[in-house]
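note to self: dont lose this again. the chain is below, predicted strucutre after it. 285 aa total, dont forget to put it in the shared folder this time
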Amino acid sequence: MEQTDSVAPTYRFAKPRRTSWWVSAVVVAVMVLGLIDFFIRGQNWQWDVVWEYLLHPDILAGLRNTIVLTVICALSGLVMGGLVAYLRMSVNPVFQAVGAVYIWFIRAIPALVLLLFIFFLSALLPQIPIGLPFLPPLASFPTNQLISQSTAAILGLTLIQGAYIGEIYRGGILSVPRGQLEAARSMGMTSWQSMRRIIAPQSIRVIIPSLGNEMITLFKNTSLVFVIGYTELLTTVQLIYGVTYQTIPLLVVACIWYLVLTSLAMVGQRQLERKYGKGFRGVTD
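---
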């Protein structure tokens, strides 16, 4: 029988067409130049007013309130998210139902409506009772004294963040193969030890990008508390241009500060991704 030598097939890969790269680069360059011309030559921007108010004491005070509110709600939202994730992943069906209903409710109600509802809770519940249902309360407290503008803002944003962060936690935990949890159990680890040593170090790589986006969204969502009169950055800007009628330049001031702080948050997120993504394919240095 005649034998023929098998020759491995050769493949030729065509070089990528770079013409489209140059065309897209030219189009983007023209658009960028147009935007630069629009920003520089547009007299209605009133850049002198922008630089005048960029470091204005009132603007900085509003910016400080925004940062403080973001930090407080971020920390409380992380804790609330952990509780929600625990409920959603519990083997107890009652806990699962409570977590699911909570997430469903927060997703369904607009953030502005929730903030307003919490702030005006005294119209529905003048006194907050402490005790068992259908029995005389052991104590009661005036709702107006407990729920101020800052309290309503923190409570509302925490409830909102808790629902979304809880789902982020759950998604990160579910991304770890169940076999690793079973292996940890076979080695005699408790549930807490398995979570701390096996599950959490692997899930955090998946959690960080979504969690970083949620923290940036929280920073921007602090502007919603203007509806309840909390004086943060956007509210301060509105108060100033309500007197000076310099609406556009003061809105530019707010945008500049939002861009600066969001950029810093993105840099921090990127550093965390690089730290916890070492050894995984697709992570660039």
